[in-house]
Every structure is written in structure tokens, then in C-alpha cells.
Amino acid sequence: MIINELNVSAPGRICLFGEHQDYLGLSVITAAINLRISITGKKRNDRKFYLDLPDIGSQEEFDLEKPITYIKERDYFRSSVNVLLRQNMTLPHGYDCTVHGNIPINSGTSSSSALVIAWIKFLLTIASDKRQSNPLEIARLAYQAEVLEFNEPGGMMDHFAASFGSILHIDFGIADGLQLSLPAKLGHFVLGDSLQPKDTKGILARVKDRTLNAMKILSEENKHLKIRTLSHEELEYYKALISQEQYELLKGNITNHKLTQQAKKLLQQETVDHKKLGRLLNAHQNELRDQLRISTPKIDRMIDAALKAGAFGAKINGSGGGGCMFAYAPENYEQVAEAIKLAGGKPYIIQVDEGAMVEPLKYVISENEPENALSND
User: Fold this and answer.
1) Which residue intervals of 192-332 are DSSP H helices?
2) What is the rounded distance in angstroms from the CA atom of residue 257 to the CA atom of residue 215?
3) Which residues pair with 43 in a beta bridge?
């Protein structure tokens, strides 16, 4: 089947619970949000791809008749094509594409993974590949294109979140991560961009490396000790073997694992105790701020402002050191958004959204355009 025009989109995400838990083989709970990246394409008569990215003032182009080599760091459009071509996928035509998005960039809301997920789904769909309707396969392919192809650190949390959508519990103690959709019906959130770039590499160098090293030290002392089952009492017993910072990191991660399990139980119910969810978010933030130390003074001020304006709970989003926070505000989200703005952040009122999807095409007709003109709205 030849597809003449196509519009595909994928969502950003917030991490409700489980920051810095994925690489420990623990669980996370994500929520896809209605800030999305869309790719609209119109078939060409050759095998060239032209991509216009007006939001960032950039363009990309490549020809399927020639070897596709990478010309920049994290060259995701080309890497996605290469990953798929290696798996014998056939792309009979090129496309003129426009890429739009409203996900904050470099802010912990997974804009890059949403882009790769949308692009992978676009390519699979125009190739009439049966994997186009399999969110797990799309997530795996996107992970290969974004992470493995460039030997980047990182897991599959963002790819699962953008591909599956909605609220997702992911257990990274299972190979590739075991995904469970949670049926809870949640109200509005307010995402607040601190406008401070994230220090992802610096945070991971401290939090990830020192936590993993601490667990290595403990397991060498007692091979039965595992982060998944480690208790606060056991950690206290072996405290002298590790540094004070490592102790605090492990203590925070043990607490956060327990909070994630409590949240999973809560979110398995369609009707949710919204105030209890807020209390769990606040408890999670306390650990991220005080034990893992990944928050920032500005984000702390934004969180305080949101809570004073009536949010039920609030926390930093993502690996930390900048980027975004979010507040759960099902009743008075407009006031919370204004409070975050006054605290120096850029607010977005958001809701839980679906995963990667093919969207209806939108057309505009004007006196200066032919009737089949494709709208880039």
C-alpha cells in the first residue's frame, strides 16, 4: 500500500515515581502528557527525504539511494533509518516532512525520545511494516536508534512512555522492562519549566556511579544484599563500609522504591484518592531533594509556590540538576500555573495522553493555495 500523506505524533512524559531507579533494576511509573511532537509527510516521486524543523530553524535531508552516514552528534533521523534498513525494511519512496513540537527541550520531559518514537512509527507506517502497531517493538527500535547506535548511557523508560502512552508501571528488574498499564483516571497537572538546562551528565556521574559503587561494596561484603530487597535496617548495619554520601543515596533510593510500590497500588484503581497521590509525590520530592540532591533552589521555589497555590503534590521531573518540575492540581490548575510563573518558571497545563499514534491529516484552503494543500498546524 502506498501512503501519499501521513501525520504521526508521540508524547512527552513525566516520571511520576522512580527517578534514578531504572538503572538500579527497580520500577518507575511514567505518564505520557499532551505535549507532543508530530511529523507530517507527503510522498515524493524519488527516494529522498527532506525534513523541515521550523521550531528550531533547522532542516535535514538524505537520499536512500546513497549510504546514510552521520553528520552530527545524535543524528536521530539518519540513525533510525539505518536501524530499520539493517532489518531489511523497505522504503520505496522518500517524503517531504515537517516536524513540529511543543515539548520543552533539554528539560526532562523526553523530547528527544518522543521525536525518535514518532519518526520510527512514521517510517514503519509508510513501509507497511506490521511492527507499526506494536508499541513494544517501536520502543525497542527507538532505543536502538537513540541510545545503542551512539553508545549513549540511558535506558528504555522514555521510549516505553512515549510509545505506550497513558500511565505505565515499568519494572526494570525484568529483562527489557516489564510494562503494566495503570487504569487510574487523573486530573490536570501543571508542568513548570525552570528554564535552567539540565546537568544530566553531572548528575548521573554523581548519583548513578556512586550508588552503583556503593551496592557493589555491600554485595562484596554480603552476596545476598540486593537493592531491590535492601532494607533501611540492613543499610544501617553496613553503613561503615561506604561514604556518607553513598549512604544517603542508597537510603533515598530504598525509600523511593517503597513509594513507587505504594503509588502502583494506588494507581491500579480507576478512582484515585487524589490527595493521597499528592502526599506520595511530596514524599518522593523530599527524598530527591534531600538524599539524592538532584533538585535546584529555583525548582524548590517553584514547587513551594505550587503547593501554596493549592496543588496536592509536586516534584522535580527527570534526572535533575535543572529542567522541569510538575504539580498535581486537579482542582485549581490555573492558579497553580500562575504561581509557577510568578516563581520564574514557564507553566504548561497538561493531562495524561495516549502514546504514539497516526493522527488525522489537517487541511487548509485559502485563495492562494490549491485545495490539497497540507496544513502544518
Assistant:
1) 200-203, 209-221, 232-237, 244-267, 274-290, 297-308
2) 15
3) 95
What are the b/e assignments for 235-245, b being 16+ CB within 10 Å? beebeeebeee
> CA 292, CA 369: separation in Å to the nearest integer?
56
Cα 274 from Cα 79, distance rounded (Å): 42
The pairing of strands 58-63 and 48-53 is antiparallel
Instruction: Please name the amino acid found at residue 63.
Output: D
Structural domain boundaries in the chain: 5-183+355-359, 189-350
* DSSP H or E segment with residue 80: helix 76-86
Architecture per CATH, domain 189-350, reads as 2-Layer Sandwich (3.30)
The CA distance from 218 to 189, in Å, is 39
Q: Which fold has domain 5-183+355-359?
A: Ribosomal Protein S5; domain 2 (3.30.230)
Residue 172 contacts by C-beta under 8 Å, 6 or more apart in sequence?
21, 22, 23, 24, 25, 26, 27, 28, 155, 157
CA distance 319 to 108: 7
> For the CA atoms of 106, 112, 115, 120, what is the dihedral angle to 10 degrees?
180
Say what the pTM is. Answer: 0.90
d(CA 284, CA 18): 8
Q: How far apart are CA 165 and CA 31, in angstroms?
A: 7
d(CA 49, CA 42): 10
Q: Which residues of 119-132 are buried (b: 16+ CB within 10 A; e: fewer)?
A: bbbbbbbbbebebb
Residues contacting 286, CB < 8 A, separation 6+: none
- Set of cell numbers at residue 28: 518507575
Number of other residues whose CB lies within 10 A of the CB of residue 201: 11
Mean pLDDT by 10-residue block, N- to C-terminus, for the chain (377 residues)? 92 96 93 97 96 95 94 95 93 94 89 96 95 95 95 86 96 81 96 89 86 95 93 96 96 96 96 97 97 96 98 94 95 97 98 95 48 33
Radius of gyration of the chain (CA): 22
189-350 and 5-183+355-359 share a CATH fold? no
